[in-house]
Specification:
This protein has 1460 residues and is an alpha+beta fold. It contains 54 helices and 23 strands. Helix 51 links the parallel strand 20 and strand 21. It starts with 19 loop residues before the first helix and ends in a 6-residue tail after the last helix.
């Protein structure tokens, strides 16, 4: 600190200091024995009068004149200098002086002499100066004697500290005397080299704390003059070999920094967590200007802390030189044994500076980017702890109001850069030097103007130039402090805000320091050579060790490649060498106090940031520090190394979190390579002349020959090769070592699902078959684990594996053409449903279904297996269906089918209630609803028995039209019979007609007597007359017979009386007409075997018969049928996307950004289009993100205003359109909430709308659902959700209709938690990364309402998952994940902090959102899959609308029309 260099700072006692002349005169006037006795008697008498040595009140002092004190005080001062053998005399002198000093306090004691009470400052200065002799070391003394001396010194220090704190009458001269005294005693005790158990070692911490605390009090009440500041600075530089000085320096700096940051950055800025005692050392009355002045001066009070690493500088003091001259053991001052503590002291100083850096950055000390690092604390255990943030704010680790990087570097940069380059020899290449010298006008890069700054910045010379350096002071011993400095530098540069500029000089020095820290490591297995003093260093990658500096850089610099740091890519080769040393091998030689898991996690973070660089920058050369032009490599050449590093790290990783991060990076590599090759092939096909240029990056600049060799990937790194490697690696590890960890298993299965969806042209069917086989083996192993191992987590992995198998089979339907693969899959399905296989070993007789005990691993596993079986039977090879991916079910319903009937002549507008009356409804197996229409459709003209069936089951709705044909269709048109040939002519000769009456028995039968056998058969009369019922039935039968006999007799008479003509038209036989009406419902059920007596009766296993008739005429049936149709057979998820401009934290401003494309990033709309395809919510049959418009085709409102073509994404707000994506298992709606467009005054004004034309009244989704939903109102908040929201809507509709309904049964009732729809997923596009901390999650939470939520969902804001996206200046995108930390919350493939390319951004965001929702459903205890909810809905319909009939009534009902 050159501010006080011109001021005197002589600390040698001058004339009058310590009243030395008077004491010397007294000492020389009398012999030692006489003087001792006089001092002893005087001190004892004065102490007795004070009332402290014996009981009794204090006595009034008889010392009334100054002359008396002029005799007594030199004697007392002389007594303080006695040898420690006279400790009792010294104690009495201390007691007297301490009591006399109380005269400076408000209430002085009566035992204090009157002259002292009248002029306390004058005598206090004399007393304080006399105390100096108490602290002077007496030489070699025993530890007991030194302890007794230390007790007296502590009492004096307490007294002085009490006076300094509580006295209001201290004069400026007294303050300076007090400060001079403290400086003198510290110099006397601390300047000599440290000796064990000496007075300086015992009193070091105490005298230093009193010095600094008193100095702070003086700064508040009487600011010390410059000479005193200069004296303090020079004195501290002589005490730097004492560890206590650095501890107290850190303690004072933390306390002052806490005060400084509080008024510089506001009360909400994160505060340093220090003890209350340390906080109270700063006077509350100290002004802000004074705090700033004192903070800066005390920060530099010890000089350059990096000098602590130079023993020659630290020992260059008079005290060390005197010790070397007088000692026989030490030849040079720099060889004193106490200097062995310099590495520890240097580390403490660097930790203190590092902690101050963290304080100004506002980040948690010890935690950077989620990875624990060393705690930069001093003896006061300082740390950073942020204040409690507002609810739902996302903590990014650093305060948004933090200082700029340049400002922090101005303060601490010289020290940190110098410390980071200890023992580093930097050689500047001649080409670079010549280039700098020949350059023209350049931007100035140096920020130092004084000689000290230039000296600090150029301190890069090696420290190994001293051949006499002791072994304990080798550069390796200072690696810990150097690592701390490098860590602090990394945190500073990682704290760069979006758009913030850092001076080029700082960037250059930082890159040099990091390169030096990464380049070399010391191998402890090769000791130093004593003859030369040289050390052996080795490359990290070769030796498999990691230096402390490299570890610090990795842990604290994880974000270096995630920021827009200019030129940071020059560090890629250096950092790759370190990653090669720590990631591929689990057993790595690490620095002390460094966790292997922590270091590997930091390395994985860095690796994930490097993965997109090769395919992004491609042929751009990497300008490595210190490398010549001929040694440069391109980014694309680094890709094999990165891929192999990722693969090797995944093979040895054991930590679950690290493994999941690596899996996310692996899927990113495969997917990025796949899209890169696809786009490259398109580019070569369409733009053959420009195929050498980089399509995704503007960094190109290679010649044609270079581009030709580097734009295409090598075979080993192609998408197909990575696809095969990934499948083998993941499946092998999944079965061998990951199967017991639920999180790793889920991450591996998510990766396999992502691989299945990739469209790689060269996919090998055999590899895909192996993947499915491994999945089945995984399921078999998990299911076969012993019962104690079965848990919710285990079953979650099995369910996820079934889901993954479904994805693979749908994406690769040809796999089921393989008999072996089909058999394997079906065996696993059987295992999941029944709990065992029919054939355990090949060759064994299979066990039939009815012979096995149905005992699945759990109901969740059984339901997942059923879903896979349904997917195999209905979706594999058929997805997407003719209806499109929007719907797995038929879009036809009762209304549509009835409109297309041949016989329909009713009104054009048909209600659902009217349509259901024309159908017959049956339920088979209590899970399938059959709606049968017996009228032919308009496209069926043949008079064949026709039935149209709407089949509703757990997995959807299908429509079939069936005809009963006796011949195939291609033969039905042929006439197989001739026209009626007519009746042949009659023959006139018909012969003689004999009127003979036939007899059934002979005439003698009546004469034969009856025997007992004949009488064994009772007569008809006896049977009929047995009961009244038989008599009545017999009478009715007789009446019918009599009536029929009379009718036939009448007809016979009419025929006989009427003249006959031949042929008689009325009696002539003719062919009957063709039948056009059939009871086709009866025929269909009969042909399917559903009309048996057993099917109509209840059985022991089920209270509901196999076939049940439904009464469609009951009120509410059509509504519940709609509820079933709106219970989707796939999972539905909604992602809400927001765009945040720089500095925005207001919800309405955020919602208005997407109105115009001028307000959003150029790539934002491209990102939206990569998430899904746009659909019109009114014409879309699938999920739309809102229950008001989902699963139905509606007419849009007349007053709906569509956004213009230049919108910024508001088109997909859900009012007219959304972005939609679906596969065979899931549906996702991507909604971009926006403000409600204001209605224009001209009716035909429907053009584009800019932000000024937008009303700031936000369209509330819940109100939107209420207004738009006619057929499906939202959930009644007073009623819990039933098996789907449609049933909730049914209840609400019934209550609105005014018709009383009986209380609904609770069969199949489900709460909203069974739908697992209370979690929310947000995607937030940021222009500034710092806006994460102010993102208004709570204000925007209401915009995510879909209508599926249960009651109280707004209170569950912890279930919000947010994916933040920031577009970097280099064209890449930084990801930040935020969500509620749960056991299964870490879903991939995106990783927190990852950097991704533009190609795969949309796909990875979609997959991560889907996996987040799936994991949430797996974690929920009450969640039920879609097909289970549909099954429960069907059972509820059966319970409510079942027709309970006997068999005869059921059969009779089949012969009647449904309208009868």
């Amino acid at each position: 600190m050159s501010l006080f260099n011109d001021w005197s700072s002589d600390l040698i006692p001058q004339q009058g200091w310590g009243d030395e002349a008077a004491i010397a005169a007294f000492k020389d006037a009398v012999p030692w024995n006489v003087g001792r006795d006089f001092v002893a008697g005087t001190a004892k008498h004065l102490a007795t009068c004070l009332g402290l040595t014996k009981p009794g009140p204090p006595i009034h002092s008889k010392i009334l004149q100054d002359k008396q004190l002029q005799v007594l005080m030199p004697a007392l001062g002389y007594g303080l200098s006695f040898p420690l053998s006279e400790i009792d005399i010294i104690r009495d002198c201390v007691i007297v002086y301490c009591e006399w000093l109380t005269s400076l306090l408000p209430n002085a004691k009566i035992s204090v002499p009157q002259p002292i009470r009248q002029d306390p400052n004058h005598y206090a200065r004399i007393i304080i100066s006399h105390f100096y002799y108490l602290f002077v070391p007496r030489g070699v003394e025993g530890p007991d004697v030194i302890n007794r001396q230390a007790v007296l010194c502590h009492r004096v220090l307490r007294t002085l500290q009490n006076i300094a704190q509580n006295s209001c009458m201290l004069s400026e001269e007294t303050w300076q005397t007090l400060l001079h005294f403290l400086l003198h005693i510290n110099t006397a005790l601390l300047s000599p080299p440290t000796v064990k158990d000496d007075a300086g070692e015992q009193l070091c911490e105490r005298v230093l704390s009193v010095l600094f605390e008193t100095w702070l009090l003086a700064c508040d009440r009487c600011f010390p003059p410059p000479p005193l500041w200069n004296a303090l600075r020079k004195s501290c530089q002589c005490w730097r070999h004492r560890a206590g000085l650095i501890d107290q320096w850190n303690r004072i700096n933390y306390a002052l920094t806490l005060k400084l940051t509080a008024f510089m950055y506001g009360p909400n800025f994160p505060k340093i967590s220090i003890s209350e005692d340390d906080l109270n050392i700063i006077p509350n009355s100290m002004s802000r200007d004074c705090i700033a002045q004192v903070w800066y001066r005390l920060l530099h009070i010890i000089g350059n802390p990096v000098e602590l690493s130079r023993h020659t500088v630290i020992s260059k003091t008079p005290a060390f030189l005197k010790y070397a001259i007088t000692s026989d053991l030490v030849i040079e001052p720099c060889q004193h044994p106490c200097l062995q503590a310099l590495p520890t002291i240097f580390l403490s100083a660097m930790k203190g500076v590092s902690g101050l850096v963290d304080a100004f950055l506002g980040g948690p000390t010890g935690i950077v980017g989620g990875v624990a690092v060393r705690h930069p604390s001093s003896s006061s255990s300082s740390s950073l702890a942020s204040d409690s943030k507002a609810e739902n704010e996302v903590d990014i680790g650093l305060a948004s109001a933090r200082a700029k990087c340049n400002s922090v570097l101005h303060l601490f940069g010289p020290w940190l850069f110098e410390a980071a380059l200890i023992n580093c020899s930097i050689q500047i290449s001649q080409s670079g030097q010549h280039k700098n010298e020949s350059g023209g006008n350049r931007r100035p890069v140096s920020v130092y103007t004084n000689s000290e700054g230039r000296k600090s910045s150029d301190s890069s010379t090696p420290q190994d130039s001293h051949p006499d350096r002791p072994a304990h002071l080798s550069p390796q011993q200072f690696e810990a402090g150097r690592a701390e400095a490098l860590g602090a530098l990394c945190r500073i540069f990682c704290a760069k805000k979006t758009g913030e500029e850092i001076l080029p000089v700082y960037l250059a020095r930082f890159y040099i320091a990091v390169t030096q820290g990464l380049a070399l490591v010391y191998d402890p297995s090769h000791p130093e050579q004593e003859d030369t003093g040289r050390r052996r260093f080795y490359q990290s990658a070769r030796m498999g060790v990691c230096s402390e500096t490299a570890a610090s850089i990795l842990i604290n610099g994880m974000d270096l490649f995630r920021l827009d740091l200019e030129g940071v890519v020059i560090l890629v080769p250096s950092i790759l060498a370190v990653l090669e040393a720590i990631l591929p091998d689990q057993e790595v030689a690490l620095p002390p106090n460094t966790s292997t898991t922590t270091l590997r996690r930091a390395g994985i973070h860095v690796l994930l940031s490097l993965l997109p660089l090769p395919l992004h920058f491609q042929g751009l050369p990497v300008k490595e520090v210190g490398a010549g032009m001929s040694e440069r490599i391109t980014f694309l050449q680094l890709r094999p190394q990165l891929v192999n590093l990722l693969s090797n790290a995944l093979q040895v990783e054991t930590d679950p979190t690290n493994t999941q991060m690596l899996l996310g990076g692996l899927l990113y590599c495969v997917q990025d390579a796949s899209l890169y090759e696809a786009m490259d092939s398109i580019s070569q096909h369409n733009f053959a002349s420009d195929r050498e240029q980089n399509l995704m990056s503007s960094a190109g600049g290679m010649s044609g020959s270079e581009s030709e060799g580097h734009t295409s990937l090598e075979d080993s790194d192609s998408a197909h090769a990575l696809f095969v490697r990934s499948i083998y690696l993941v499946c092998h590890r999944l079965i061998s070592s990951w199967k017991s960890d639920v999180n790793i298993s889920l991450a591996g299965l998510e990766l396999l699902s992502g691989l299945a969806r990739l469209n790689i042209p060269e996919q090998d069917g055999l590899e895909c078959k192996r993947a499915v086989k491994w999945l089945c083996d995984y399921i078999v192993y998990q299911c076969s684990r012993p019962p104690p191992a079965h848990s919710k987590d285990l079953h979650s992995t099995i369910v996820a594996a079934f889901n993954c198998a479904s994805v693979w089979l749908v994406a690769h339907p040809y796999l089921l053409q393989d008999k072996e693969c089909l058999a394997t899959v079906l065996e696993v399905v059987e295992l999941g449903i029944s709990g065992s296989k029919s054939q355990l070993k090949p060759g064994e007789a299979p066990k039939l279904k009815h012979e096995k005990e149905l005992k699945p691993a759990s109901m969740r596993v059984r339901e997942a297996a059923e879903a896979l079986l349904s997917c195999i039977l209905s979706q594999v090879g058929n997805f997407p269906s003719v209806c499109g991916a929007e719907s797995l079910s038929s879009l036809l319903d009762e209304v549509t089918l009835l409109k297309h009937c041949n016989t329909w002549g009713g009104p054009e507008s048909i209600t659902k209630d009217l349509a259901t009356q024309h159908f017959r409804y049956f339920v088979a197996q209590n899970t399938i609803i059959l709606a049968l229409l017996e009228q032919p459709l308009g496209n069926h003209q043949d008079p064949q028995p026709t039935v149209t069936a709407l089949i509703r089951g757990p997995f959807g709705r299908v429509a079939w039209t069936m005809q009963l044909r006796h011949l195939p269709r291609h033969k039905s048109s042929a006439k197989l019979y001739t026209a009626n040939p007519g009746r042949p002519l009659p023959m006139n000769d018909v012969g003689i007609r004999h009127n003979v009456k036939p007899k059934f028995f002979p005439d003698s039968v009546d004469r034969i007597p009856l025997c007992k056998v004949d009488k064994s058969i009772p007569s008809l009369e006896s049977v009929i007359m047995s009961d009244d019922k038989s008599i009545l039935e017999h009478d009715k039968l007789l009446q019918i017979l009599d009536h029929q006999i009379a009718f036939e007799e009448n007809v016979r008479r009419q025929v006989e009386t009427r003249p006959s003509h031949y042929p008689d038209v009325e009696t002539e036989c003719s062919a009957p007409p063709l039948c056009h009406e059939f009871q086709t419902a009866r025929l269909l059920l009969s042909h399917f075997g559903l009309l048996s007596i057993e099917a109509l009766n209840e059985c022991d296993t089920s209270p509901v018969p196999s076939l049940v008739a439904i009464d469609a005429s009951v009120q509410g049936f059509s509504h519940d049928l709609d509820g079933l149709d709106h219970t989707n057979n796939r999972t539905v998820d909604t992602v809400h996307i927001f765009y945040v401009r720089n500095g925005q934290c207001n919800a309405q401003e955020i919602l208005s950004n997407v109105v115009s494309s001028k307000c959003v990033h150029p790539h934002f709309l491209e990102f939206l289009s990569s998430l899904g395809w746009p659909v019109n919510v009114h014409h879309h049959p699938g999920w739309t993100g809102s229950i008001a418009t989902a699963f139905s085709v509606t007419t849009p409102p007349d007053n709906l205003i569509a956004p213009g073509p230049d919108h910024g994404g508001c088109l997909y707000s859900g009012r007219t359109h959304i972005l939609y994506w679906a596969d065979a298992l899931s549906e996702m709606a991507f909604v971009v909430p926006s403000v409600v467009p204001s209605h224009p005054s001209p009716p035909n004004s429907t053009g584009s709308h800019d932000a000024p034309n937008v009303s700031m009244a936000v369209d509330h989704p819940e109100r939107f659902v209420m207004e738009k939903c006619d057929s499906l109102p939202i959930v009644d908040p007073e009623v819990e959700a039933t098996s789907s929201l449609s049933s909730q809507a049914s209840q609400t509709s019934g209550s609105h209709s005014g018709v009383g309904e009986p209380r609904r049964s609770k069969i199949g009732r489900q709460t909203s938690s069974m739908l697992c729809c209370d979690h929310k997923v947000m995607v937030v596009w940021l222009e500034s990364f710092e806006d994460i901390s102010t993102f208004p999650t709570a204000d925007l939470y209401g915009e995510t309402a879909t209508g599926l939520e249960g009651t109280g969902w707004r209170e569950k804001e912890a279930n919000v998952f947010i994916i933040f996206i920031q577009a970097l200046a280099n064209g890449l995108f930084r990801i930040k994940l935020h969500g509620h930390n749960t056991k299964l919350s870490m879903a991939g493939p995106l990783v927190d902090g990852q950097v991704v390319s533009r190609r795969v951004l949309g796909s990875l965001v979609r997959q991560t959102s889907l996996n987040m929702c799936r994991r949430k459903r797996l974690e929920s205890d009450s969640y039920q899959p879609p097909h289970v909810r549909r099954k429960l809905r069907i059972q509820e319909i059966v319970h409510k609308y079942r027709c309970k009939m006997t068999e005869s009534e059921f059969y009779t009902q089949l012969f009647t029309s449904p309208l009868c």
